[in-house]
Amino acid sequence: MNRTPQDTADIAALPGIKESDLRPCHFCGQPLGIFFYRIKLEQAVVDPKAAQRQVGLGMMLGSAALASVMGPNDDIAKIVSTSRHLVCADCAGTLPIIAAHGEDG
Length: 105
Known about the structure:
Shape: elongated
Oligomer: single chain
Structural class: alpha+beta
């Protein structure tokens, strides 16, 4: 959910971040300011055996969509690592992936 400052009228109802978890901006090292971003990055890798099973089932059934419904619903990718970072609004504006976040509609 993309919240704007106008949507935060009932700030007590929003999820929180503890003071002990606050750090300077990951990119510039400056204080965060009033509005900032907390980003979670997950590095993933494709599980070749699971992908091969899914592709093989799709070939046997003649349809990848049918294999998706009829298959075992295995995880095709696995999360290798996760990291969280705080980013100030100035730096966030220079990161295309974060700038695109506001374009969700």
